[in-house]
Design brief:
This protein is of the alpha+beta class and 294 residues long. It has three domains: 67 residues, no CATH class; 106 residues, Tetrahydropterin Synthase, Chain A (2-Layer Sandwich), CATH 3.30.479; 40 residues, no CATH class. The chain is 56% helix and 19% strand. It contains eight helices and ten strands. The strands form three sheets. Strands 2, 3, 4 and 6 form a four-stranded antiparallel sheet that branches. Strands 7, 8, 9 and 10 form a four-stranded antiparallel sheet that branches. The chain has a two-stranded antiparallel sheet with strand order 1-5. α6 crosses α7. It is rod-shaped, with a radius of gyration of 57 Å. Keywords: Hydrolase, Membrane, Protease, Transmembrane, Transmembrane helix. One of its GO terms (molecular function) is peptidase activity. HflC and HflK could regulate a protease. Belongs to the band 7/mec-2 family. HflC subfamily.
Length: 294
């Protein structure tokens, strides 16, 4: 009898623990009975258990706990094609959460998050491809990005409802060109910059030659003007000197001739060892002869 009572107590304890389940904060739970989600008898809506202590039928009902928090889907960058048939490498992320726990459980093989994210990735990617395919690269990078993300969010939200998922946000973090395209663009840009640099250098050389020729012409004109002015001044000086000489000669021709002869003697005998070959009766010795005679 005691053994039977003990067995009953153990069975009661096991049944009690099997009929109690706890839902943690940040979770929601659904109950599955014979492979079907438990629904409310009146409304027919799936029964979703909030955080707290709850009861279920032991061994018949199975509790499935699901994460109700916001989640971020940050996949690998993918390749998209624009309306110009140009490839872009786009890095995106998606904010999402479970909106219909029963639908999510049934469409993701028992609430498998990896499978849910794979399905969500395909749906969001399909919406993004449609949006990128309707725009050019210039439109995407110059001001259409916000509109593109908004339209992609609408498309992703509509298609994700089939999974019991609510898409909160779709963001395009980074847009890059493929490596091979980037290299060709960089090479073209480098060639264009080199062509512009060569054009600037050519224009610089042309301007330098123009300035140099202009300066040379100005220098030539300045030198010619200086030479002309110097010749004029020299001519004026010679004329004034000739006038002075003429005036002096007209006042006393003999004295002037005497002074000029003395200057000639001084220059001729200045070194002291000069040799002059002249005729004895030359006019050069005119005043020397007179001095000797006197």
């Amino acid at each position: 009898m005691k053994n039977f009572v003990a067995v009953l107590v153990i069975v009661a304890v096991v049944l009690g623990f099997s009929s109690i389940f706890v839902v943690k904060e940040g979770q929601r739970a659904i109950v599955v009975q014979f492979g079907k989600v438990l629904r409310d008898a009146e409304t027919g809506e799936p029964v979703v258990y909030t955080p707290g202590l709850h009861f279920k039928l032991p061994f018949i009902e199975d509790v499935k706990r699901l994460d109700a928090r916001f989640k971020t889907l940050d996949g690998n960058p993918d390749r998209f094609v624009t309306s110009e048939k140009k490839d872009l490498i786009v890095d995106t992320y998606v904010k999402w959460r479970i909106s219909d726990f029963a639908t999510y459980y049934l469409s993701t093989n028992g609430g498998n998050q990896a499978q849910a994210e794979a399905l969500l990735t395909r749906r969001v990617s399909s919406g993004l491809r449609a949006e990128f395919g309707s725009r050019t690269i210039k439109e995407i990078v110059s001001g259409e990005r916000d509109n593109l993300m908004r339209e992609a969010l609408i498309r992703g939200a509509d298609s994700a409802q089939e999974l019991g998922i609510e898409v909160i946000d779709v963001r395009v973090m980074q847009i890059n060109l493929p490596t091979e395209v980037s290299q060709s663009i960089f090479q073209r840009m480098r060639a264009e910059r080199q062509a512009v640099a060569m054009e600037h250098r050519s224009e610089g050389r042309e301007q330098a030659e123009f300035l140099r020729a202009d300066v040379d012409a100005r220098v030539t004109v300045m030198l010619a003007d200086a030479e002309r002015e110097s010749r004029e001044l020299r001519g004026q000086g010679d004329a004034e000197a000739a006038g002075i000489y003429a005036n002096a000669y007209s006042q006393d021709a003999e004295f002037f001739s005497f002074i000029r002869s003395l200057q000639a003697y001084e220059k001729s005998f200045e070194a002291g060892n000069d040799v002059l070959v002249l005729e004895p009766d030359s006019d050069f010795f005119k005043y020397l002869k007179q001095s000797t005679a006197n």
